[in-house]
């Protein structure tokens, strides 16, 4: 997959200078990178991404951010 052909979606409300970007490749994969390190891309499947999103919505990862403001 050519990373330049992907439509990267920024995960920010516009105030952050560093944030994650995500792209759906149309090939069954999801691509994730940090905006300030665009050459380093993590690839996962859409199925695993969907499971992760469901876990976030269910609060399964909340303990990782307890006490962080």
From TrEMBL:
Pfam families: DUF397
Entry-linked InterPro entries: DUF397
Top-level lineage group: Bacteria
Domain DUF397: 15-57
The name this protein goes by in its record: DUF397 domain-containing protein
Organism from which the protein derives: Streptomyces eurocidicus
């Amino acid at each position: 997959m050519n990373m330049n052909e992907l439509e990267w979606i920024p995960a920010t409300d516009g105030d952050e200078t560093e944030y994650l970007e995500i792209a759906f490749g149309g090939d069954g994969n999801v691509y994730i990178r940090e905006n300030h390190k665009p050459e380093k891309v993590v690839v996962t499947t859409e199925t695993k991404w969907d499971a992760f999103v469901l876990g976030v919505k269910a609060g399964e990862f909340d303990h990782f951010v307890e006490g962080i403001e």
